[in-house]
Amino acid sequence: VTTVKNVSPEYSGRLQVITGENNTNTTIIGAVPVYAPVHNVEISSGSFISERDQKNMTKVAVLGPTTALDLFGEGQDPIGQKIRISGQTFTIIGVTASKGSSGPNNQDDRIYVPLSTALKQLFGSKYLTSIAIEAKDENSMNQAINEIGYLLLANHKLTDPTKADFSIMSQSEILETATQITGTLTTLLSGVAAISLLVGGIGIMNIM
Description:
By secondary structure, the chain is an alpha+beta fold. It is 38% helix and 30% strand. It has 6 helices and 10 strands. A hairpin with a 2-residue loop joins strand 7 (101-102) and strand 8 (105-106). The chain is globular and about 55 Å long.
């Protein structure tokens, strides 16, 4: 594969997180250091997961701003504080800058831990949930998708692309899907509002 700049193996799942009297159920992402540049994650305070954290399977965590607020409240510095994830204690080393939410996908409400720690200590998994890949440039995107597809087919010992046991989605496809979902929700809410107005109008007429 000649068109790829960075590869970010990842594992994600939801777990309960506790600190003191506060707790929240949020997305836990097992990540490697290159996750940050691939996903344009910026740090507002502290630091992101390092290669040493990944290699040594350390119990450190980087919080999204919404998760930090839920667990520690307004105006509190969570750096150096402890949280418990599935009964295991993690030390907070960083807080990410706000990226906002897109529908149910709130990028500020999540916790990043080393991928090795997530796989072996939190989820007990031998598999990844996704691999994020950054192409060398915008013009290489389609070629990168083709190269990656053929590589995975070969590794999975498949010759027919229609029988692929994996899926590849580009950023533009993800954006298009999100736009379609948003449009559907808008139409649905408009319909509910119209029905509510109609029922309310009938109710007022009956009262009069």
